[in-house]
Records
---
Amino acid sequence: MNRIEALYSLIDINDNVVDVGCDQAKLSLMLANRNQSSIACDISENVINRAKKSIDSPLIDLRVSNGLSNIKEEEADTLVLAGMGTHTILEILNNTKLRFKKIITISNNYHDILREKMNTLNYKVDSELIIYENDKYYNLIKFIEGNRQYTKKELLLGLNHIDKQLYKEYLNYLLKKYENIKLSSKDNNPKIYEMIEAIKNTNI
Ligand SMILES: C[S@@+](CC[C@H](N)C(=O)[O-])C[C@H]1O[C@@H](n2cnc3c(N)ncnc32)[C@H](O)[C@@H]1O
């Protein structure tokens, strides 16, 4: 399963989806294939113009929008934010009054900060999915409305992983990565030690 297929697998047929940062609108194309309409938007006018040239579906509403600024209330209940960093994701959510029943993220960094800050916005982790695509691991997180207490380990490594085998492979990859950083690094960033300890204390 690639990243777009993974996003698709977590979207129900009745969800009203807005994909922010859609780029080529691949997710919306998959949804349109099963007759599901969606909004696909991007901050870049070039990106949207290019998509409009190649996509001709009444089910895909292509828009220029910085974050959710061009999305109105009631237009969507499911938000996808994939292929951007945690700080951009949080900025987009901090700059809107819109609420969603489901938010699916694929951030490329600081997943612990994302889990923690989403909690303060009243979105909690429902499930997570590790994806391996083009020699890289990606961490998809499905948030739903609500609030919960996380352990340190849950904040660092996530919880409720759907694919346990890929999660195991991801942890092995992370362990090697952080052991190497520990060996080569001159600074003593506590996060490196916390990650190593959290992984070693995980039984899956
Ligand atoms: C790496 S692409 C990811 C494309 C697709 N979502 C995916 O996961 O394959 C990131 C996209 O996000 C868009 N983007 C970045 N910041 C944005 C923002 N604040 N609002 C809307 N789109 C944004 C970029 O223009 C770019 O097209």
Note: The helical segments are 3-9, 26-33, 45-54, 86-94, 111-120, 152-157, 164-184, 190-200.
---
Amino acid sequence: MRILVTGGAGFIGGNFIHYMRAAHPAHRIVCLDKLTYAGNLSTLAGALGQENFRFVRGDIADAACVDALFAEEKFDAVVNFAAESHVDRSIAHPHLFLVTNILGTQTLLDAVNRHGVGRFHQISTDEVYGDLPLGRPDLRFTEQSLLRPSSPYAASKASADLLALAYCRTYGTPVTISRSSNNYGRYQHPEKLIPHMIACARAGRPLPVYGDGQNVRDWLSAEDHCRAVDLILQRGRVGEVYNVGGGCEVANIDVVKRILHELGRPESLISFVEDRKGHDRRYAVDFSKLREELGWQPQVEFARGLSETIRWYLENDRWSEGFAGGGPACGRA
Ligand SMILES: NC(=O)c1ccc[n+]([C@@H]2O[C@H](COP(=O)([O-])OP(=O)(O)OC[C@H]3O[C@@H](n4cnc5c(N)ncnc54)[C@H](O)[C@@H]3O)[C@@H](O)[C@H]2O)c1
């Protein structure tokens, strides 16, 4: 197979490229990435220059660039990870989120149609569903839940999902979508919760936590996410949405405490700061469709995955020097 992975210099896309190269060495993987502030070529160090891999710097919203690449490579499948992904940045500057996340997706969908690509897989998020109340463990998002995005980021992702499904219905574009919960693992930008807190704790700096820290996220290891996407590419049904969850709900404050504990730092480093505007309270994902149809379930237990992730950041501190646009801008929990 010849697969285009967009956004592969980012966190999950980078993990996916390494996963696919190990799981399917005969596949040709091409990565298209604009290398925004969030792109880091060091993430792809093990793949660059290797057989069956090509990196192309380019914008998914640039129709001429996308079209030329599709004509040259004749892809069998496209997996679209490329996105502006940070909620805080979307609150400060929504425009770029609409351009990349919606128009970029449309540009790729048009190219898929024009070049007869066999599958377009859209990487989406559980944030399209909005949030759930605390204290209602019986409630979880299913694929039938209403789309009620809270942030400009989530609204742009929901728009892209709707567009992809509309292309499937109107043009017969072979679309699948996965909506995953919060990922953690190696290669994540230091503006995001877990790497940011690890960096602060290591340096003995205050760990800034939004509001009361009780916001709950459903944590999924990036490795488990990659396995889910691979399965959906192989056996997922066209036109379908699949939720991907970790089955592991943890309040932000407890994630922060675990990191402090692992690094032997005191909880007195926790510093509560003004809450994010419109901050979602709780996410929880029902992934029974993926489990029942494709036999997937998460394999990495959170305590072990978090320990391994912390160790990876400690052992790879030169890696973050590879970011195109410098360090973190506005990371808080
Ligand atoms: N991180 C999570 O917890 C999470 C959870 C659910 C879904 N997702 C989704 O997974 C995808 C990947 O998220 P991530 O956390 O790896 O993001 P990331 O910010 O780490 O990486 C995004 C990558 O996309 C590239 N990019 C941005 N704009 C581009 C453009 N116009 N053209 C080409 N490349 C561009 C960046 O250079 C970067 O390499 C996103 O679609 C996101 O919505 C993420």
Note: Residues 6-7, 9-13, 32-36, 38-39, 59-61, 81-85, 100, 104, 123, 125, 157, 180, 182-183, 189 surround nicotinamide-adenine-dinucleotide (CB under 6 Å).
